[in-house]
Amino acid sequence: MRVALVEDNAIFCFLFKRFLEEYPARKIEVQLFSDGKKALDYFVSTKDEPSFHPNLIFIDINMPIMNGWELIDNLMNYKFEFIHNSHVYIVSSSKSPLDRSNYREYNFIKDYITKPIDREGIYKILDEYISDESQ
């Protein structure tokens, strides 16, 4: 399983990656991107290589260079099919009603998760993905 995290907070990235590496049900390959531009550049460079695309994507909203909404819009503009086949989650410390309502405009985004997120919360999402995948 491949999981991408697009997040600029180094501490959150460290913890998130550690939780994924310790996930007992399946080996997980973790891709970390510190901003939306780095993630977009990677996805553009691997557009014709679906095996490099993530099964789950966690995207922060507030990042430098390219924020989460800009990344999502660019992924749609480039017509990346994997966003419709992956489980996409917004992970943000923003409790703004505008941010929370924006995610509903994208039918492929599974949920809006407010930080902090703990190990059990991440594992629940991974378990749900595995359950959906096996159906």
Strand order across the largest sheet: 2-1-3-4-5
Q: Which structural category fits the helices and strands?
A: alpha/beta
User: How helical, in percent, are the residues?
Assistant: 40-55%
Q: Find the CATH topology.
A: Rossmann fold
Q: How many distinct domains?
A: 1
Cα-atom Rg, whole angstroms? 14 Å
The strand count comes to: 5
Question: What's the end-to-end separation, in Å?
Answer: 16 Å
Per the principal axes of the C-alpha atoms, what is the gross shape?
globular
Q: Profile the largest sheet.
A: 5 strands, parallel
* Name of the CATH homologous superfamily: Response regulator
Helix count equals 6
Strand fraction equals 15-25%
Mean pLDDT: 93
CATH architecture: 3-Layer(aba) Sandwich
Q: Please trace the helix and strand order, writing H or E for each element.
A: EHEHEHHEHEH
Low confidence ranges: none
Organism: Sphingobacterium alimentarium
Pfam family, one: Response_reg
Keywords: Phosphoprotein
Protein name: CheY-like chemotaxis protein
